[in-house]
């Protein structure tokens, strides 16, 4: 079930996050990519613990809702397992290993690198090409997870009447959207993409265009929403809305938002330390930020001034056309949070 294969026909990309279900349908008009439709539906409290799904039924309901709201006609989808639940490993084999033997070799590698009994594991691999350090070797990406992480997500999609054709990892969905829609990965010697979500924050690093490091940790905009609730006596919904619209008392910026932004910078700093410790590098050439919290005004400049690396808010959709079913204003407000869903949908677009 765990499968990287690209499909020929269009697919819905379904991002089941900790706070919402996001659907994106991408297509192609001539040489141009197009967002045919999209929708986002929030998930009720208690559906998942961070990204561990506790109840699939409310997710099935939210998927039905995004399908209705997006007015898509597609019934086949791609979904992803979170970075924190997936094992990604670059395996290097001799380039002389015949293609027919790669599969058997990778089964052995999977057994060695995925720390669960093999009958509880789903995995797949993708040949990336000649090794960066030695052209006589081949880099092969191995990705795996516990099968239960796949099954619970597939069950939720099937409850909504969808057929799941592709199960990917969030890391690769992110890579796919950046690779197909931008030249950000090739442009820099090394680039770190930081996604600040609702409960989780992830870092994905690319060196010379190739994915080399990913990590996900508990931190996100939910903490800011909770602080607003407690501080100003608002409900969860009111606090979430006030945060986006900015209509809060004057002391909000200095006493609530600024400390949260400082915390975002600290989290990023820690992530970079993990990366440096694992890579023998001491810097990255560019930082890209994404996720809903990337919309917080001035966060890019603040990160740049503290960390000292160029920072920008990623926008893979700058050259993408919007279909008739997509409201440009709404899309502009949501797009930083749609990268995973778009990357998944692009698995079905050549
Ligand atoms: N304009 C905005 N200003 C501040 N925060 C925002 C804005 N828009 C969205 N957010 C916050 O971004 C978070 C949602 O981001 P995102 O959609 O990337 O998370 P998610 O993918 O649902 O969650 P996760 O990745 O943690 O599972 C929420 O906390 C939301 O309040
Ligand atoms: Mg997310």
Descriptive report:
With 350 residues, this protein is of the alpha/beta class. The chain has 2 domains: 1-86 and 151-182 and 316-350, ATPase, nucleotide binding domain (Nucleotidyltransferase, domain 5, 2-Layer Sandwich), CATH 3.30.420; 183-314, ATPase, nucleotide binding domain (Nucleotidyltransferase, domain 5), CATH 3.30.420.40. Helix content is 37%, strand content 30%. It has 11 helices and 16 strands. Strands 10-6-1-2-3-16 form a 6-stranded mixed sheet, with helices on both faces. A 5-stranded mixed sheet has the order 13-12-11-14-15, covered by helices on one side. A hairpin with a 2-residue loop joins strand 4 (48-49) and strand 5 (52-53). The longest helix has 29 residues, at 251-279. The mean pLDDT is 94. Bound molecules: adenosine-5'-triphosphate (ATP) and magnesium ion (MG).
Helical run tally: 11
Examine the secondary-structure arrangement and name the CATH architecture of the largest domain.
2-Layer Sandwich
Low-confidence stretches: none
Shape: globular
Class by alpha and beta content:
alpha/beta
Gap between N and C termini: 21 Å
CATH top level of the largest domain is: Alpha Beta
Bound molecules: adenosine-5'-triphosphate, magnesium ion
**Order of strands across the widest beta sheet?**
10-6-1-2-3-16
Biggest beta-sheet profile: 6 strands, mixed
Helix content: 25-40%
If you compute it from the alpha carbons, what radius of gyration comes out, rounded to the nearest whole angstrom?
A: 20 Å
